[in-house]
Amino acid sequence: MVRLTVDLIAKNSSFKPRREEVISQYLKKITHINFSDKNIDAIENLSPCKNLSVLYLYDNRISQITNLNFATNLTHLYLQNNCISCIENLRSLKKLEKLYLGGNYIAVIEGLEGLEELRELHVESQRLPLGEKLLFDPRTLHSLAKSLSILNISNNNIDDIRDLEMLENLNQLIAVDNQLLHVKDLEFLLSKLMKLWKMDLNGNPVCLKPKYRDRLILVSKSLGTHLYYIVFLEKAT
């Protein structure tokens, strides 16, 4: 077992504190921590790192998001490719702007209430049981309605994205390799998301529908402004 502790951070840092500088002063100055791919399975108390703004912990074995309540200055959190099954203990991260959780075991997007600065959410390729799909808690969607601009939900067996209509400031939606089938559902979504300019539907069944792009482009044109530039990507045949 490898736990991320302040001692481990100090030991592995390339920057060493001056002789007259105690370890607590040194830790307080740290803004970036990178322990990706280090077999980390737990996050211990890192509260001395009060100015931490970017935390890289991807490609590890972390099963629970813990001990980050202190990180009120954190803006970027990278937790992709771990063993996380529940989004939790993040509500203190009021300055968080980008959250990366792809490649975990998350079944429901929840627990993000109060993160009013969150602009990017990446939850692609969750390792779900066969036949299950990624779901969205309405409370979290409502909380992110005004802040979220980029959402990546690729490869999650999703067959309906109409619930995303409340994300009024969304401008990029990446939904590659899902089970989206109905053009009408996408037309409905486009009629609600007035700021959306890019939508990647690569690998969805809807891409096989005759003239599906024409129908969606027509909807986007009717809404005017920058929606004209929505991108529809397909796999090369």
TrEMBL record:
Gene3D superfamilies the UniProt entry points to: Ribonuclease Inhibitor
Protein name, entry field: Protein phosphatase 1 regulatory subunit 42
Keywords: Cytoplasm, Cytoskeleton, Leucine-rich repeat, Repeat
Quaternary structure annotation from Swiss-Prot or TrEMBL: Interacts with PPP1CC isoform gamma-2; the interaction is direct. Interacts with actin, dynein, KIF5B, KIFC1 and tubulin. Associates with microtubules.
Pfam families found in the cross-reference section: LRR_8
Summary of the function given for this chain in its UniProt record: Regulates phosphatase activity of protein phosphatase 1 (PP1) complexes in the testis.
GO CC annotation: centrosome
CDD domains, per the entry: PPP1R42
SMART domains the UniProt entry points to: LRR_SD22
Subcellular localization(s) per the UniProt record: Cytoplasm, Cytoskeleton, Microtubule organizing center, Centrosome
Stored InterPro entries: Leu-rich_rpt, LRR_dom_sf, SDS22/Internalin_LRR
Primary localization: cytoplasm
